[in-house]
Amino acid sequence: MSSYFPYSHSKNMSTARDAEDDITSISETTMTAESENEGTAVSLTLKDDKTQVEKENEDSTLVSDTHTEQSLRAGLKGVYTSSLMLCLFSCGFGSSFQVGFHLGVLNTPAKILIEWQKESLTASILLVGGILANALLSSITHRFGHKGTLMYNNALVVIAMILQHLAKIFDNYIYMIISRFIIGINSGINMGLTSIYLCEIAPINLRGAIGCLSNCFLYLGFLFALVVGLPFMLGDEENWHLIFLLAFIPVSVQLTLLGFFGPESPKYSYIVCGDVIEAEKSLQLLRQRNDVREEMDMLDKELSKARSVSHQKIGICKMFSKKYLRWSLYLGIYLMFSVQISGSAPVGVYSTKIFEDANLSQLNAQFATCGIGVINVLSILFCVYLVQHPNIGRRTLFLTCLIGCCISTCLIGISIIMAEKAHNTTEEITSTKSFINEEIITTINTTPSSGGSIAAYFSIVFIGIYVIFFSIGFGSITESYLSDFFPSEARATGCSAATLSSLLFRLIVLFSFPILKKLIGPSVFFIYSACLLICSLLGFVILPETKNKEPERILRDIKRRRMQITSRCCCKL
Predict the structure, then answer these.
(1) Long-range contacts, 235-241 (Cβ 8 Å, 24+)
(2) At what angle do helices 207-228 and 97-104 cross, to 10 degrees?
(3) Cα–Cα distance measured from residue 324 to residue 318, given in angstroms and rounded to the nearest whole number
(4) Contact 32, 56 (CB under 8 A)
(5) What is the end-to-end Cα distance of the chain in Å, rounded?
(6) Please, what's the b/e burial string for 354-385 (b: 16 or more CB within 10 A of its CB; e: otherwise)?
(7) What b/e string do you get for 136-146 counting C-beta neighbours within 10 Å, with b at 16 or more?
(8) Can you spell out the DSSP letters for 53-93?
(9) What is d(CA 489, CA 493) in angstroms, rounded to the nearest whole number?
(10) Nearest-CA neighbor of 20 among 140, 156, 187?
(11) Which stretches make up the Major facilitator superfamily (MFS) profile domain (predicted)?
Protein backbone atom coordinates (compact mmCIF):
# COMPACT_ATOMS: atom_id res chain seq x y z
CA MET A 1 0.00 0.00 0.00
CA SER A 2 1.71 3.10 -1.13
CA SER A 3 0.27 5.15 1.63
CA TYR A 4 1.74 2.90 4.23
CA PHE A 5 5.34 2.55 3.33
CA PRO A 6 8.13 4.51 4.98
CA TYR A 7 10.84 4.02 2.48
CA SER A 8 11.38 5.54 -0.89
CA HIS A 9 10.47 2.63 -3.07
CA SER A 10 10.90 4.17 -6.49
CA LYS A 11 8.20 3.99 -9.10
CA ASN A 12 10.62 6.09 -11.04
CA MET A 13 13.65 3.83 -11.31
CA SER A 14 15.95 6.74 -12.10
CA THR A 15 15.82 7.86 -8.47
CA ALA A 16 17.09 4.50 -7.29
CA ARG A 17 19.70 4.49 -10.00
CA ASP A 18 20.98 7.91 -8.94
CA ALA A 19 21.16 6.79 -5.32
CA GLU A 20 23.19 3.73 -6.28
CA ASP A 21 25.55 5.82 -8.38
CA ASP A 22 26.29 7.87 -5.29
CA ILE A 23 26.81 4.71 -3.24
CA THR A 24 29.44 3.30 -5.61
CA SER A 25 31.07 6.67 -6.38
CA ILE A 26 30.14 6.55 -10.01
CA SER A 27 27.34 9.15 -10.10
CA GLU A 28 26.53 10.54 -13.52
CA THR A 29 27.97 14.02 -12.92
CA THR A 30 29.45 16.69 -15.15
CA MET A 31 32.17 19.31 -14.83
CA THR A 32 30.55 22.57 -13.74
CA ALA A 33 31.61 26.16 -14.17
CA GLU A 34 31.76 26.53 -10.40
CA SER A 35 34.78 24.26 -10.08
CA GLU A 36 36.96 27.10 -11.40
CA ASN A 37 35.59 29.68 -8.97
CA GLU A 38 34.76 27.71 -5.82
CA GLY A 39 36.40 30.22 -3.54
CA THR A 40 34.26 33.09 -4.78
CA ALA A 41 30.90 31.29 -5.16
CA VAL A 42 29.31 33.00 -2.18
CA SER A 43 30.07 36.49 -3.48
CA LEU A 44 28.54 36.06 -6.94
CA THR A 45 26.00 38.69 -7.96
CA LEU A 46 22.47 37.71 -8.88
CA LYS A 47 23.27 38.00 -12.57
CA ASP A 48 26.41 35.93 -12.28
CA ASP A 49 24.53 33.37 -10.24
CA LYS A 50 21.95 33.01 -13.01
CA THR A 51 24.65 32.59 -15.65
CA GLN A 52 26.40 30.06 -13.46
CA VAL A 53 23.31 27.91 -12.96
CA GLU A 54 22.44 27.97 -16.65
CA LYS A 55 25.96 27.02 -17.71
CA GLU A 56 26.11 24.20 -15.20
CA ASN A 57 22.93 22.66 -16.40
CA GLU A 58 23.68 23.17 -20.08
CA ASP A 59 26.83 21.09 -19.64
CA SER A 60 24.95 18.56 -17.54
CA THR A 61 22.14 18.31 -20.07
CA LEU A 62 24.50 17.78 -23.00
CA VAL A 63 26.26 14.88 -21.30
CA SER A 64 22.99 13.46 -20.01
CA ASP A 65 21.36 13.64 -23.46
CA THR A 66 24.34 11.94 -25.09
CA HIS A 67 24.28 9.19 -22.51
CA THR A 68 20.53 8.75 -22.88
CA GLU A 69 20.83 8.30 -26.65
CA GLN A 70 23.48 5.65 -26.16
CA SER A 71 21.35 3.93 -23.53
CA LEU A 72 18.26 3.91 -25.69
CA ARG A 73 20.08 2.36 -28.62
CA ALA A 74 21.12 -0.50 -26.37
CA GLY A 75 17.99 -0.80 -24.26
CA LEU A 76 15.06 -0.38 -26.63
CA LYS A 77 15.78 -3.81 -28.07
CA GLY A 78 15.10 -5.38 -24.69
CA VAL A 79 12.28 -7.88 -24.27
CA TYR A 80 10.99 -9.98 -21.40
CA THR A 81 13.07 -13.14 -21.24
CA SER A 82 12.62 -16.11 -18.94
CA SER A 83 15.80 -15.23 -17.02
CA LEU A 84 14.69 -11.63 -16.56
CA MET A 85 11.22 -12.68 -15.40
CA LEU A 86 12.71 -15.16 -12.96
CA CYS A 87 14.85 -12.41 -11.42
CA LEU A 88 11.85 -10.10 -11.27
CA PHE A 89 9.75 -12.68 -9.48
CA SER A 90 12.49 -13.64 -7.03
CA CYS A 91 13.11 -9.98 -6.13
CA GLY A 92 9.45 -8.99 -6.18
CA PHE A 93 8.20 -11.90 -4.09
CA GLY A 94 11.37 -12.36 -2.04
CA SER A 95 11.99 -8.69 -1.19
CA SER A 96 9.13 -6.31 -2.05
CA PHE A 97 6.37 -8.73 -1.01
CA GLN A 98 8.24 -9.36 2.20
CA VAL A 99 8.48 -5.65 3.00
CA GLY A 100 4.74 -5.18 2.48
CA PHE A 101 4.05 -8.25 4.61
CA HIS A 102 6.09 -6.95 7.54
CA LEU A 103 4.46 -3.53 7.30
CA GLY A 104 0.94 -4.96 7.43
CA VAL A 105 1.49 -7.83 9.81
CA LEU A 106 0.92 -5.75 12.95
CA ASN A 107 -2.37 -4.31 11.77
CA THR A 108 -4.98 -6.96 12.37
CA PRO A 109 -3.51 -8.57 15.53
CA ALA A 110 -2.82 -5.08 16.90
CA LYS A 111 -5.40 -5.48 19.67
CA ILE A 112 -3.39 -8.35 21.11
CA LEU A 113 -0.17 -6.36 20.99
CA ILE A 114 -1.89 -3.33 22.53
CA GLU A 115 -2.41 -5.36 25.67
CA TRP A 116 1.34 -4.97 26.17
CA GLN A 117 0.75 -1.19 25.75
CA LYS A 118 3.80 -0.98 23.55
CA GLU A 119 2.06 -0.61 20.23
CA SER A 120 3.62 2.72 19.25
CA LEU A 121 7.14 1.59 20.10
CA THR A 122 6.66 -1.74 18.33
CA ALA A 123 5.47 0.01 15.18
CA SER A 124 7.99 2.87 15.30
CA ILE A 125 11.10 0.80 15.95
CA LEU A 126 10.88 -0.54 12.39
CA LEU A 127 11.54 3.00 11.17
CA VAL A 128 14.65 3.24 13.33
CA GLY A 129 15.96 0.08 11.69
CA GLY A 130 15.16 1.57 8.29
CA ILE A 131 17.18 4.69 9.07
CA LEU A 132 20.14 2.55 10.11
CA ALA A 133 19.83 0.50 6.92
CA ASN A 134 19.85 3.68 4.86
CA ALA A 135 23.18 4.62 6.43
CA LEU A 136 24.72 1.16 6.00
CA LEU A 137 23.52 0.39 2.48
CA SER A 138 26.50 1.94 0.72
CA SER A 139 29.20 -0.03 2.51
CA ILE A 140 27.23 -3.29 2.53
CA THR A 141 26.49 -3.31 -1.20
CA HIS A 142 30.05 -2.31 -2.04
CA ARG A 143 31.38 -5.27 -0.08
CA PHE A 144 28.87 -8.02 -0.91
CA GLY A 145 27.41 -6.83 -4.22
CA HIS A 146 23.77 -6.38 -5.08
CA LYS A 147 22.81 -10.01 -5.39
CA GLY A 148 24.93 -11.00 -2.40
CA THR A 149 23.40 -8.34 -0.17
CA LEU A 150 19.88 -9.43 -1.10
CA MET A 151 20.80 -13.01 -0.29
CA TYR A 152 22.52 -12.32 3.05
CA ASN A 153 19.72 -9.95 4.03
CA ASN A 154 17.40 -12.93 4.40
CA ALA A 155 19.38 -14.03 7.45
CA LEU A 156 17.93 -11.03 9.30
CA VAL A 157 14.41 -12.28 8.58
CA VAL A 158 15.21 -15.69 10.03
CA ILE A 159 16.61 -14.11 13.21
CA ALA A 160 13.57 -11.84 13.50
CA MET A 161 11.15 -14.76 13.03
CA ILE A 162 12.81 -16.63 15.89
CA LEU A 163 12.59 -13.60 18.18
CA GLN A 164 8.94 -13.00 17.31
CA HIS A 165 8.16 -16.60 18.13
CA LEU A 166 9.98 -16.26 21.46
CA ALA A 167 7.90 -13.17 22.25
CA LYS A 168 4.82 -15.41 22.37
CA ILE A 169 6.49 -18.25 24.24
CA PHE A 170 7.97 -16.08 27.01
CA ASP A 171 5.22 -13.43 26.90
CA ASN A 172 7.86 -10.69 26.73
CA TYR A 173 7.47 -7.68 24.46
CA ILE A 174 11.25 -7.05 24.42
CA TYR A 175 11.69 -9.88 21.91
CA MET A 176 9.05 -8.30 19.67
CA ILE A 177 10.70 -4.88 19.75
CA ILE A 178 14.14 -6.30 18.93
CA SER A 179 12.69 -8.38 16.11
CA ARG A 180 10.91 -5.36 14.62
CA PHE A 181 14.15 -3.39 14.72
CA ILE A 182 15.89 -6.19 12.80
CA ILE A 183 13.01 -6.33 10.33
CA GLY A 184 13.40 -2.58 9.88
CA ILE A 185 17.00 -3.07 8.80
CA ASN A 186 15.96 -5.88 6.47
CA SER A 187 13.14 -3.82 4.95
CA GLY A 188 15.36 -0.78 4.51
CA ILE A 189 17.92 -2.80 2.59
CA ASN A 190 15.24 -4.51 0.51
CA MET A 191 13.50 -1.27 -0.38
CA GLY A 192 16.68 0.54 -1.29
CA LEU A 193 18.42 -2.27 -3.13
CA THR A 194 15.62 -4.11 -4.93
CA SER A 195 14.76 -1.16 -7.15
CA ILE A 196 18.46 -0.59 -7.88
CA TYR A 197 19.07 -4.22 -8.81
CA LEU A 198 15.97 -4.42 -11.01
CA CYS A 199 16.91 -1.16 -12.69
CA GLU A 200 20.37 -2.44 -13.57
CA ILE A 201 19.31 -5.82 -14.94
CA ALA A 202 16.36 -4.48 -16.97
CA PRO A 203 16.50 -3.00 -20.47
CA ILE A 204 15.86 0.74 -20.62
CA ASN A 205 12.47 0.39 -22.27
CA LEU A 206 11.13 -1.99 -19.60
CA ARG A 207 12.25 -0.23 -16.44
CA GLY A 208 9.00 1.64 -15.83
CA ALA A 209 6.89 -1.49 -16.09
CA ILE A 210 9.32 -3.41 -13.91
CA GLY A 211 9.11 -0.72 -11.25
CA CYS A 212 5.32 -1.01 -11.19
CA LEU A 213 5.59 -4.78 -10.93
CA SER A 214 7.85 -4.48 -7.91
CA ASN A 215 5.36 -2.12 -6.25
CA CYS A 216 2.51 -4.52 -6.97
CA PHE A 217 4.31 -7.22 -5.01
CA LEU A 218 4.73 -4.80 -2.12
CA TYR A 219 1.02 -3.97 -2.00
CA LEU A 220 0.07 -7.61 -2.34
CA GLY A 221 2.36 -8.45 0.58
CA PHE A 222 0.56 -5.91 2.72
CA LEU A 223 -2.84 -7.26 1.70
CA PHE A 224 -1.72 -10.85 2.35
CA ALA A 225 -0.67 -9.90 5.89
CA LEU A 226 -4.10 -8.39 6.52
CA VAL A 227 -5.91 -11.47 5.27
CA VAL A 228 -3.91 -14.03 7.27
CA GLY A 229 -4.34 -11.80 10.33
CA LEU A 230 -8.10 -12.33 10.36
CA PRO A 231 -9.24 -14.07 13.57
CA PHE A 232 -10.63 -17.15 11.81
CA MET A 233 -7.21 -17.69 10.22
CA LEU A 234 -4.15 -16.83 12.35
CA GLY A 235 -5.18 -13.58 14.01
CA ASP A 236 -6.33 -14.98 17.37
CA GLU A 237 -4.53 -14.94 20.71
CA GLU A 238 -3.29 -18.49 20.33
CA ASN A 239 -1.89 -18.37 16.80
CA TRP A 240 -1.00 -14.72 16.02
CA HIS A 241 2.73 -15.40 16.42
CA LEU A 242 2.54 -17.95 13.59
CA ILE A 243 1.81 -15.13 11.13
CA PHE A 244 5.41 -13.98 11.37
CA LEU A 245 6.66 -17.45 10.41
CA LEU A 246 5.01 -17.09 7.00
CA ALA A 247 7.88 -14.79 6.06
CA PHE A 248 9.95 -17.93 5.58
CA ILE A 249 8.08 -18.59 2.30
CA PRO A 250 9.42 -15.55 0.36
CA VAL A 251 12.82 -16.09 1.98
CA SER A 252 12.98 -19.64 0.62
CA VAL A 253 11.82 -18.55 -2.83
CA GLN A 254 14.45 -15.85 -3.13
CA LEU A 255 17.29 -18.00 -1.81
CA THR A 256 16.39 -20.73 -4.31
CA LEU A 257 15.61 -18.75 -7.45
CA LEU A 258 17.98 -15.82 -7.10
CA GLY A 259 20.70 -17.88 -5.46
CA PHE A 260 20.91 -20.57 -8.14
CA PHE A 261 19.63 -18.85 -11.27
CA GLY A 262 19.96 -15.08 -10.81
CA PRO A 263 23.07 -13.20 -12.02
CA GLU A 264 24.88 -10.34 -10.33
CA SER A 265 24.12 -6.87 -11.60
CA PRO A 266 26.14 -6.32 -14.82
CA LYS A 267 26.75 -2.72 -13.83
CA TYR A 268 28.15 -3.72 -10.43
CA SER A 269 30.35 -6.43 -11.93
CA TYR A 270 31.76 -4.14 -14.62
CA ILE A 271 32.12 -0.77 -12.89
CA VAL A 272 32.68 -1.63 -9.23
CA CYS A 273 34.49 -4.96 -9.54
CA GLY A 274 36.07 -4.42 -12.95
CA ASP A 275 35.04 -7.93 -13.99
CA VAL A 276 34.27 -7.54 -17.69
CA ILE A 277 33.77 -11.25 -18.32
CA GLU A 278 31.26 -11.67 -15.49
CA ALA A 279 29.33 -8.59 -16.62
CA GLU A 280 29.11 -9.92 -20.17
CA LYS A 281 27.94 -13.33 -18.95
CA SER A 282 25.23 -11.69 -16.83
CA LEU A 283 23.96 -9.64 -19.77
CA GLN A 284 23.96 -12.67 -22.07
CA LEU A 285 21.95 -14.63 -19.51
CA LEU A 286 19.44 -11.83 -18.95
CA ARG A 287 19.00 -10.99 -22.65
CA GLN A 288 19.33 -14.63 -23.78
CA ARG A 289 21.51 -13.66 -26.71
CA ASN A 290 25.26 -13.58 -27.24
CA ASP A 291 25.52 -10.13 -28.81
CA VAL A 292 25.47 -7.61 -25.95
CA ARG A 293 28.19 -5.31 -27.31
CA GLU A 294 26.01 -2.19 -27.27
CA GLU A 295 25.24 -2.51 -23.57
CA MET A 296 28.86 -3.37 -22.80
CA ASP A 297 29.95 -0.23 -24.68
CA MET A 298 27.47 1.79 -22.66
CA LEU A 299 28.94 0.44 -19.40
CA ASP A 300 32.46 1.15 -20.63
CA LYS A 301 31.64 4.77 -21.44
CA GLU A 302 29.91 5.17 -18.11
CA LEU A 303 32.98 3.85 -16.33
CA SER A 304 35.26 6.25 -18.21
CA LYS A 305 33.04 9.18 -17.39
CA ALA A 306 32.79 8.17 -13.73
CA ARG A 307 36.57 8.03 -13.40
CA SER A 308 37.01 11.51 -14.89
CA VAL A 309 34.36 13.38 -12.89
CA SER A 310 33.73 11.40 -9.70
CA HIS A 311 35.69 13.97 -7.69
CA GLN A 312 33.13 16.63 -8.64
CA LYS A 313 30.30 15.09 -6.61
CA ILE A 314 28.44 17.54 -4.41
CA GLY A 315 28.05 16.59 -0.76
CA ILE A 316 25.47 17.74 1.73
CA CYS A 317 27.65 20.56 3.11
CA LYS A 318 28.24 21.97 -0.36
CA MET A 319 24.51 21.83 -1.05
CA PHE A 320 23.84 24.16 1.87
CA SER A 321 26.56 26.54 0.71
CA LYS A 322 25.02 26.99 -2.75
CA LYS A 323 21.80 28.98 -2.82
CA TYR A 324 20.11 27.25 -5.75
CA LEU A 325 20.90 23.79 -4.35
CA ARG A 326 19.83 24.79 -0.86
CA TRP A 327 16.41 25.83 -2.15
CA SER A 328 16.06 22.54 -4.05
CA LEU A 329 16.82 20.70 -0.83
CA TYR A 330 14.17 22.72 0.99
CA LEU A 331 11.66 21.70 -1.68
CA GLY A 332 12.62 18.04 -1.25
CA ILE A 333 12.17 18.20 2.52
CA TYR A 334 8.84 19.99 2.06
CA LEU A 335 7.75 17.19 -0.28
CA MET A 336 8.58 14.49 2.26
CA PHE A 337 7.01 16.42 5.13
CA SER A 338 3.77 16.72 3.16
CA VAL A 339 3.72 12.97 2.52
CA GLN A 340 4.24 12.00 6.15
CA ILE A 341 2.06 14.65 7.82
CA SER A 342 -0.83 13.41 5.71
CA GLY A 343 -1.36 10.66 8.27
CA SER A 344 -0.44 7.82 5.95
CA ALA A 345 1.52 5.99 8.63
CA PRO A 346 -1.31 5.90 11.22
CA VAL A 347 -3.90 4.99 8.59
CA GLY A 348 -1.71 2.13 7.40
CA VAL A 349 -0.56 0.72 10.72
CA TYR A 350 -3.58 1.45 12.89
CA SER A 351 -6.44 1.28 10.37
CA THR A 352 -8.10 -1.68 12.09
CA LYS A 353 -8.05 0.13 15.41
CA ILE A 354 -9.39 3.28 13.75
CA PHE A 355 -12.37 1.31 12.43
CA GLU A 356 -12.94 -0.20 15.87
CA ASP A 357 -12.96 3.29 17.35
CA ALA A 358 -15.74 4.05 14.86
CA ASN A 359 -17.67 1.26 16.65
CA LEU A 360 -17.30 -1.43 14.04
CA SER A 361 -16.91 -4.90 15.46
CA GLN A 362 -13.40 -6.29 15.48
CA LEU A 363 -14.15 -8.68 12.63
CA ASN A 364 -15.85 -6.00 10.52
CA ALA A 365 -12.97 -3.63 11.21
CA GLN A 366 -10.52 -6.22 9.93
CA PHE A 367 -12.64 -6.87 6.84
CA ALA A 368 -12.75 -3.11 6.24
CA THR A 369 -8.97 -2.93 6.48
CA CYS A 370 -8.64 -5.72 3.92
CA GLY A 371 -11.06 -3.85 1.67
CA ILE A 372 -8.89 -0.74 1.90
CA GLY A 373 -5.94 -2.90 0.88
CA VAL A 374 -7.82 -4.09 -2.19
CA ILE A 375 -8.69 -0.49 -3.10
CA ASN A 376 -5.04 0.46 -2.90
CA VAL A 377 -3.96 -2.41 -5.15
CA LEU A 378 -6.62 -1.55 -7.74
CA SER A 379 -5.79 2.14 -7.65
CA ILE A 380 -2.30 1.34 -9.00
CA LEU A 381 -3.73 0.80 -12.48
CA PHE A 382 -5.44 4.19 -12.45
CA CYS A 383 -2.27 5.83 -11.12
CA VAL A 384 -0.19 4.44 -13.97
CA TYR A 385 -2.61 6.00 -16.45
CA LEU A 386 -2.48 9.40 -14.72
CA VAL A 387 1.30 9.45 -14.43
CA GLN A 388 1.74 8.65 -18.12
CA HIS A 389 -0.95 11.05 -19.34
CA PRO A 390 0.76 13.77 -21.42
CA ASN A 391 -1.50 16.59 -20.20
CA ILE A 392 -1.31 15.90 -16.46
CA GLY A 393 1.80 17.26 -14.77
CA ARG A 394 3.45 16.21 -11.54
CA ARG A 395 2.69 19.52 -9.83
CA THR A 396 -0.98 19.08 -10.67
CA LEU A 397 -1.07 15.54 -9.30
CA PHE A 398 0.76 16.50 -6.13
CA LEU A 399 -1.47 19.49 -5.37
CA THR A 400 -4.60 17.46 -6.15
CA CYS A 401 -3.38 14.82 -3.74
CA LEU A 402 -2.73 17.43 -1.03
CA ILE A 403 -6.21 18.92 -1.32
CA GLY A 404 -7.93 15.52 -1.54
CA CYS A 405 -6.08 14.13 1.48
CA CYS A 406 -6.78 17.34 3.42
CA ILE A 407 -10.53 17.02 2.89
CA SER A 408 -10.67 13.25 3.42
CA THR A 409 -8.68 13.30 6.70
CA CYS A 410 -11.06 15.95 8.02
CA LEU A 411 -14.05 13.80 7.03
CA ILE A 412 -12.46 10.74 8.66
CA GLY A 413 -12.21 12.60 11.95
CA ILE A 414 -15.80 13.88 11.71
CA SER A 415 -17.23 10.43 10.90
CA ILE A 416 -15.41 8.76 13.81
CA ILE A 417 -16.55 11.49 16.23
CA MET A 418 -20.15 11.08 15.07
CA ALA A 419 -19.94 7.30 15.48
CA GLU A 420 -18.55 7.67 19.00
CA LYS A 421 -21.24 10.18 19.99
CA ALA A 422 -23.98 7.91 18.69
CA HIS A 423 -22.50 5.01 20.62
CA ASN A 424 -22.25 7.06 23.82
CA THR A 425 -25.86 8.22 23.44
CA THR A 426 -26.97 4.62 23.17
CA GLU A 427 -25.15 3.68 26.34
CA GLU A 428 -26.65 6.59 28.29
CA ILE A 429 -30.20 5.70 27.28
CA THR A 430 -29.68 2.03 28.05
CA SER A 431 -28.55 2.88 31.57
CA THR A 432 -32.00 4.35 32.36
CA LYS A 433 -33.80 1.16 31.47
CA SER A 434 -34.92 0.38 35.04
CA PHE A 435 -36.57 3.79 35.47
CA ILE A 436 -38.36 4.38 32.16
CA ASN A 437 -40.92 2.41 30.24
CA GLU A 438 -39.11 -0.28 28.25
CA GLU A 439 -41.15 0.39 25.10
CA ILE A 440 -39.96 4.00 25.02
CA ILE A 441 -36.41 2.81 25.60
CA THR A 442 -36.57 0.61 22.54
CA THR A 443 -37.82 3.42 20.34
CA ILE A 444 -35.15 5.87 21.44
CA ASN A 445 -32.36 3.31 21.45
CA THR A 446 -32.82 2.30 17.81
CA THR A 447 -32.11 5.67 16.26
CA PRO A 448 -28.66 6.37 17.77
CA SER A 449 -27.53 2.84 17.04
CA SER A 450 -28.50 3.24 13.38
CA GLY A 451 -26.80 6.64 13.18
CA GLY A 452 -23.64 5.23 14.71
CA SER A 453 -23.60 2.40 12.21
CA ILE A 454 -24.00 4.81 9.30
CA ALA A 455 -21.19 7.03 10.60
CA ALA A 456 -18.95 4.00 11.08
CA TYR A 457 -19.42 2.90 7.48
CA PHE A 458 -18.84 6.45 6.29
CA SER A 459 -15.43 6.28 7.97
CA ILE A 460 -14.63 3.29 5.75
CA VAL A 461 -15.68 5.25 2.67
CA PHE A 462 -13.62 8.29 3.63
CA ILE A 463 -10.50 6.22 4.33
CA GLY A 464 -10.97 4.57 0.94
CA ILE A 465 -11.18 8.02 -0.68
CA TYR A 466 -8.07 9.05 1.24
CA VAL A 467 -6.18 6.03 -0.08
CA ILE A 468 -7.17 6.82 -3.68
CA PHE A 469 -6.04 10.45 -3.40
CA PHE A 470 -2.82 9.37 -1.73
CA SER A 471 -2.09 6.90 -4.51
CA ILE A 472 -2.54 9.37 -7.36
CA GLY A 473 -0.05 11.81 -5.85
CA PHE A 474 2.11 10.85 -2.91
CA GLY A 475 2.21 7.18 -3.81
CA SER A 476 2.95 7.53 -7.51
CA ILE A 477 5.10 10.58 -8.27
CA THR A 478 6.90 11.59 -5.06
CA GLU A 479 10.22 9.94 -5.93
CA SER A 480 10.31 11.10 -9.54
CA TYR A 481 9.16 14.59 -8.58
CA LEU A 482 11.87 14.77 -5.93
CA SER A 483 14.65 13.79 -8.32
CA ASP A 484 13.59 16.54 -10.74
CA PHE A 485 14.48 19.25 -8.22
CA PHE A 486 18.21 18.53 -8.36
CA PRO A 487 20.84 18.77 -11.11
CA SER A 488 22.57 15.49 -11.91
CA GLU A 489 25.70 16.25 -9.88
CA ALA A 490 23.64 16.82 -6.71
CA ARG A 491 20.74 14.45 -7.29
CA ALA A 492 22.01 11.49 -5.31
CA THR A 493 22.95 13.60 -2.29
CA GLY A 494 19.74 15.61 -2.40
CA CYS A 495 17.49 12.57 -2.73
CA SER A 496 19.31 10.76 0.08
CA ALA A 497 18.96 13.75 2.41
CA ALA A 498 15.26 14.12 1.60
CA THR A 499 14.68 10.40 2.09
CA LEU A 500 16.34 10.53 5.49
CA SER A 501 14.08 13.43 6.48
CA SER A 502 11.09 11.37 5.32
CA LEU A 503 12.06 8.52 7.61
CA LEU A 504 12.45 10.90 10.55
CA PHE A 505 9.09 12.59 9.87
CA ARG A 506 7.37 9.23 9.59
CA LEU A 507 8.97 8.03 12.82
CA ILE A 508 7.65 11.10 14.65
CA VAL A 509 4.14 10.80 13.20
CA LEU A 510 3.88 7.06 13.79
CA PHE A 511 5.13 7.25 17.37
CA SER A 512 3.00 10.27 18.29
CA PHE A 513 -0.31 9.03 16.87
CA PRO A 514 -1.30 6.71 19.77
CA ILE A 515 -0.29 9.40 22.28
CA LEU A 516 -2.27 12.15 20.57
CA LYS A 517 -5.23 9.87 20.11
CA LYS A 518 -5.38 9.18 23.83
CA LEU A 519 -5.26 12.92 24.54
CA ILE A 520 -7.69 14.32 21.95
CA GLY A 521 -9.30 11.26 20.37
CA PRO A 522 -10.32 11.34 16.68
CA SER A 523 -9.56 15.07 16.61
CA VAL A 524 -5.98 14.05 15.82
CA PHE A 525 -7.09 13.81 12.19
CA PHE A 526 -7.91 17.52 12.24
CA ILE A 527 -4.24 18.19 13.01
CA TYR A 528 -3.23 16.28 9.88
CA SER A 529 -5.91 18.06 7.87
CA ALA A 530 -4.74 21.50 9.05
CA CYS A 531 -1.12 20.69 8.21
CA LEU A 532 -2.15 19.49 4.76
CA LEU A 533 -4.08 22.71 4.20
CA ILE A 534 -0.97 24.74 5.01
CA CYS A 535 1.14 22.51 2.75
CA SER A 536 -1.41 22.94 -0.06
CA LEU A 537 -1.30 26.73 0.14
CA LEU A 538 2.49 26.66 0.30
CA GLY A 539 2.65 24.23 -2.62
CA PHE A 540 0.78 26.59 -4.93
CA VAL A 541 3.54 29.14 -4.33
CA ILE A 542 6.77 27.15 -4.29
CA LEU A 543 6.24 24.00 -6.38
CA PRO A 544 7.38 24.07 -10.04
CA GLU A 545 6.09 21.89 -12.85
CA THR A 546 8.82 19.46 -13.95
CA LYS A 547 7.17 17.02 -16.35
CA ASN A 548 8.82 16.96 -19.80
CA LYS A 549 11.14 19.82 -18.85
CA GLU A 550 14.91 19.92 -19.12
CA PRO A 551 16.90 20.30 -15.87
CA GLU A 552 17.99 23.84 -16.69
CA ARG A 553 14.38 24.98 -17.18
CA ILE A 554 13.38 23.40 -13.87
CA LEU A 555 16.20 25.14 -12.01
CA ARG A 556 15.30 28.47 -13.60
CA ASP A 557 11.70 28.03 -12.50
CA ILE A 558 12.79 27.13 -8.97
CA LYS A 559 15.06 30.18 -8.85
CA ARG A 560 12.30 32.46 -10.13
CA ARG A 561 9.93 31.27 -7.44
CA ARG A 562 12.62 31.67 -4.78
CA MET A 563 13.31 35.24 -5.86
CA GLN A 564 9.60 36.09 -5.79
CA ILE A 565 9.22 34.73 -2.27
CA THR A 566 12.37 36.35 -0.90
CA SER A 567 11.49 39.71 -2.45
CA ARG A 568 8.03 39.62 -0.87
CA CYS A 569 9.26 38.47 2.51
CA CYS A 570 12.32 40.77 2.43
CA CYS A 571 14.48 38.05 3.90
CA LYS A 572 17.31 35.85 2.69
CA LEU A 573 16.54 32.14 2.53
Answers:
(1) 235/108, 235/109, 235/366, 237/112, 240/109, 240/112, 240/168, 241/164, 241/165, 241/167, 241/168
(2) 30
(3) 11
(4) yes
(5) 36
(6) bbbbbbbebebbbbbbbebbebbbebbeebbe
(7) ebbebbeeebb
(8) HHHHHHHHHHHHHHHHHHHHHHHTT----HHHHHHHHHHII
(9) 8
(10) 140
(11) 80-547
- Three-class DSSP category at 26: coil
| Residue 272 CB contacts under 8 Å (≥ 6 apart), including other chains | 24, 26, 142, 145
Q: Is 394 helix (H, G, I), strand (E, B) or coil?
A: helix
474-494 burial code (b ≥16 CB/10 A, e <16): bbbbbbbbbbbbbbbbbbbbb
* Cα–Cα dist 235/227, whole Å: 9
Are 357 and 522 contacting, i.e. CB atoms less than 8 angstroms apart? yes
d(Cα 486, Cα 331) in Å, to the nearest integer? 10
Rounded Cα gap, residues 242 and 262, in angstroms: 30
DSSP-assigned letters across all residues of 199-219: HHHS-GGGHHHHHHHHHHHHH
- Residue 5, phi then psi, degrees to nearest 5: -110, 130
Backbone angles phi, psi at 365, to 5 degrees: -65, -40
Q: What is the pLDDT along the chain (573 residues), one digit of tens a residue?
A: 444 433 334 333 444 444 344 434 433 333 333 433 444 333 434 344 444 444 444 444 444 444 444 444 444 456 788 888 999 899 989 998 998 888 877 765 555 555 544 555 666 788 788 888 877 877 788 888 889 999 999 999 999 988 888 887 887 778 888 888 999 899 888 887 887 788 788 887 676 667 667 777 888 888 898 888 887 787 677 777 788 888 899 999 999 999 888 888 888 888 778 888 888 888 888 888 888 888 888 888 777 766 655 555 667 777 777 777 888 889 989 999 998 888 877 776 667 777 776 667 777 777 887 888 888 888 777 776 777 677 888 888 899 999 999 999 999 888 888 877 766 654 444 444 443 344 433 333 444 445 556 777 788 888 889 988 888 878 777 777 887 888 766 776 777 788 788 888 888 887 788 888 888 888 889 999 999 999 999 999 888 888 777 777 888 888 888 887 777 765 554
Amino acid of residue 389: H
CA proximity to 551, closest of 215, 125, 65: 65
Letter for the amino acid at 136?
L
| Cβ atoms < 10 Å from Cβ of 332 | 25
For 435-487, give the DSSP string.
TS-HHHHHHHHHHHHHHHHHHHHHHHHHHHHHHHHHHHTHHHHHHHHHHHTS-
CA separation for the pair 289, 81 (Å, rounded): 10
